[in-house]
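The instructor's notes for this session suggest beginning with a concrete chain rather than abstract definitions. Hand out the sequence below and ask the class to guess, before any prediction is shown, which regions might be ordered.
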Amino acid sequence: MERPGTAAGRLLPVAGLAELPMRPDQPGRARELAVRQAMTRTLEVDLADPVITRVERLAAGPDPVAVADEWRALTYGELAAEARRLAALLERAGVGPGDVVGVGGRRCATVVAAFLAIELLGALYVPADAGWPAARVRDVLVQAGALALLDTGADERSPALLEGAAAAGCPVLRAAEAAGCEPWTGAPRLHSLDQPRYVLFTSGSTGRPKGAVVEHRGMLNHLWAKIVDLEMTAADVLAQTAPLGFDISVWQMLCPLLLGGRVEVIGDEVGHDPVALARVVDERAITIVELVPTMVRHLLDDLAGAPEGSLGGLRWMIATGEELPTELARRWLEAVPHARLLNAYGPTECSDDVTHHTITRADLDLLRLPIGTPIVNADLYVLRREDDGTWAACEMGEVGELFVGGICVGRGYLGDHDRTRDAFFRDPIGGVPGGRLYKTGDAVKLLPTGTLQYLGRVDRQVKISGVRMELGEIEAVLQRHPAVGAVAVVVHEFTPQG
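After discussion, reveal the predicted structure:
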């Protein structure tokens, strides 16, 4: 029985989700096409253990460095001990299974320990970025129903975090206080694989942020998907560059911990300076970096003045968060040919990325790059809306809307049943009891190469003089010109003066 007011108690039950309207023959047809076109991918991965269990298991061995920031480095044993002290601090404040805990402050090793502490208690992590204004902090903490905000700052404390927490009526705990706590000694409170693990707030069209709830199995599956597709080992060092409020920050701070690898936390001062970032990648032997394409462009612009051999140890550059222009991919392959370039796509509502595509030179002949094929245990369906309001499967080359199924699909929006019903549906296609589909709102088509191509938001299609146009397509053409750094196309309605 969930305690009243806990996050789990405010989730829309799967049985309460809407049905996706499809004609009787279409679910089978959609599944048949997805299987034939390799838009489903099944692989058994270890979802049983929480991340903290893997960390403590690895601490029993040689105990290498697990996470480092600009101030300190923690071995696996030290990270596990800090997580258990923080768990004791949180439990003393009344945090239990199903409760939401805000975590705020700069990116640092303490944030990683805080996530593991919250995992130990069976609670939910919700980040509150130190760069947010106080009103945003307040809105997120109120909507999440956070029981407390854990301030991970050591010396400097964010006034916006403190002001936002006070406005939300949310008590603030200082992570530094955990130093005087005896480590929490219980077993990790993982009751089921569909247990909510974290809430991340995304922008809403109404101006009110939406809290996407991700389950334990969805999060773990995404971590293993990255390990499988990037061929990660204990030798890898992953840069944690994303703001805490950005969904990719979760895999960046956890994925290496499943293997005995290392997380290198990169602060904003370095992360926003391409020259400094390249230097730190070399100095800290970082092998995997993930950036938005805009930052990849700045990095390439500044590499011309960098020392010879810069980024020499880099194995992967992952582009995410924005569409990756073809010309930018061409520049990367020419400038840093030894580091593979991965195009990643996915919504926060589906535990982060749902497709991966390693860019090849053959892709450079395309107007728009593929976003790829499904990650492990994800099902992708391209559906079109018929005139009668039902959804039907698209053939190869047809433009439709992307729907995501599989264990990666989250639980919906916390405390927002209306918006949950608009985007999450009971899955009539996959045939798994309790399965869910997420309606992405993204227009895609399947290419003859067996990969998906992203075409923009479904609501960006416009008609001009009766002719349908995709604004994203126009942007892609303009982006190919070497003199164009960034582009946005909008429709301006011109009324002639009479």
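Then share the key points. Confidence is low (pLDDT under 50) at residues 494-498. The longest helix spans residues 76-92.
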